[in-house]
């Protein structure tokens, strides 16, 4: 019966809109640059397919993107690229999350591919990604990894996109037989690999990445079975603190980029910095100054400053909900989370929070940061103050376990 149904099925009598009608309905010019390779494609489409295709065309133009190259040419020039996840969200092109903090995009003929191109080509994302990965494998054949004098390895690829080879673990997973493999992609032209015994050298190599490089992430990843995950190094591991700082710098980089896109009418972004505790840990701190609405990042600590400039103290951010009169509303923007607060806590309200450093200790810290980095006695005395005055978080506190009991301690001169 299925065979005969083909002869007796009712044909689709939905009127087929012409290309001109599709363009006019979306206020698109008839001579749209790059449209010629696609003019004949709609002849094979049904009415709903034509409208879906035209919507993708309008979305491409509205996004400020050029029309895609003809698939006949583009299919031979595809390559995946790895970028920070926040950058993928910000730029609005097609992307797929890869591992924590990283995302995959596709370059077609040297251009980053927007999602509407897939509709214009009539292809699925998986089809394009698979083809791009196959071409990356072909380009990576017979490309050795260079052993540096430090003992770690660096991927050497002439296309300047060594970081994309983090997507191809089969290229490097056998470098350290019987040992844990750690990977870093601090820049587009950097893929660094090291066994656990050489983690300090890997940290040094990440720090030596030129500032002018196309930065990706400083975080170190670890191969666990068939997966890559951010290396979970716990104290007292000697690289636990460096890894913590690398992850904090990645977060700070995302917040700095985000600041440029925040509408001024929303309020003032709270600056984000790092402090070193007496226990040797680095913690992130956001500075909230009395005045307009503040856009608060998700830092470990919040430093409060009155409108007069008086330092009021540094407190654990996780205890902010104790001030029920202040309500933070999420800011709708790409990248890491921010909350918008109006108003400013009173002295009585600040007393409800768990204290990391008193106003006097905070003022000493600010004064020390403003002085030339020559004398250190004031820093030592500040450490003594913090050790005796900073309050420790209790077991019932909302403060995370890794932040409990921290005090201000010695501060670096920078």
Content of β-strand: 15-25%
**Count, helices:** 12
Biggest sheet layout: 6 strands, antiparallel
Spatial ordering of strands, largest sheet: 5-6-8-7-9-10
Can you tell me the residue ranges where pLDDT is under 50 for at least 5 consecutive residues? 1-10, 374-396, 409-414
Helix/strand class: alpha+beta
Number of DSSP-assigned strands: 19
Overview of the molecule:
By secondary structure, the chain is of the alpha+beta class. It has helices at residues 2-8, 19-25, 47-62, 71-74, 85-91, 116-121, 125-140, 199-207, 240-259, 347-350, 359-370, 377-389; strands at 78-84, 96-97, 102-108, 111-112, 145-147, 153-155, 181-184, 192-195, 221-224, 227-230, 268-269, 272-276, 282-289, 294-297, 301-305, 311-316, 329-330, 338-341, 355-357. β7 (181-184) and β8 (192-195) form a beta hairpin. α11 runs antiparallel to α12. The longest helix is centred in the middle third of the chain and has 20 residues, at 240-259. The protein is flat and about 75 Å long. Mean pLDDT is 88; it is low at 1-10, 374-396 and 409-414.
